[in-house]
Amino acid sequence: MRKILNIIACSIVTLTILVSMFPIKVSHAKTQSKRKIVVFEESVDKVKKNNIIKKHGATKIKDIKAINAIVVNVSDVDNFESEESVRYVEDDVIVSIDDAIVYISGKVNDSDITSKTKKKDDTTPEEQEEVIPWGIKYVGAPEMWEITRGEGIKVAVIDTGIDVNHPDLGDNIKGGINTIINDNTYNDNNGHGTHVAGIIGATDNDIGVVGVAPEVDLYSVKALDSYGDGYVSDIIYGINWCIINDIDIINMSFGINENLIALHDVVKLASENGIIMIASSGNNYGGYSQYPAVFEEVVAVGAIDYSGNILGFSAINGVDVWAPGYNILST
Prior knowledge:
single chain, 331 residues, Alpha-Beta Plaits, elongated, four-stranded antiparallel beta sheet, seven-stranded parallel beta sheet
């Protein structure tokens, strides 16, 4: 099972770049000064944590059990750092997907795909004849299908959600969570997460496209809203959820410049629990990879073109794997 998991992970590592690194986005973080992540010592129980929050006039938003933290709206006079029971306090920054997102999910050039049959223009997903995108073939996914098609592998997409009614995804979506409001309404109201999910696990059903692992179990972890924005605490909460629910692989097609201890703490815990994590290195034009891709527990992916040349918008430093990142067709 572990060998099969590694095979799937390696393919998803290379194919994740198809959406996370072709000119889709540049992520940045904005500080929300009134919203903080307060991380307590491991021995501090729930009652004591709540008393400390109340003492400092803060309002509790949510618990993150994996790192023994509480996300709060703080008052003007809070001083959590003075508490011996508090390990550290960090700003709950906002992770944003840039407005200039370019999805390739409609019409495509024949040169951009390897066809089982050619896709027709101006059709609904149900009417589109199935194609294998060029990047899927480039990384050798069809050959991998002789070994495994991803069955039994649980992959979580931490993003804007997944379209649960998409005809090329629905059968593979097995569950999820909305970490923004902490419920199970994890449908995509932006499109980015659905695009990522299609690259990973679009079904082989004679319509649309085929993903790298067409029989994988997809889990939608909606941590970004309809604008592509989300607090880093919601991403941390999503990773926490993945640990609890025995997810095998986590995909994170976003990045920030801040090296946040809380984010790294939960990433390390996920790694200790055997979860393979994949993240885009960032679209920063030859610069350094962003977080969480920088963390040693995470595989950082950079972008190449049809000829294997590094694309100009891709990060270069800190990249672990290079993969197709241009003219990407997905759901």
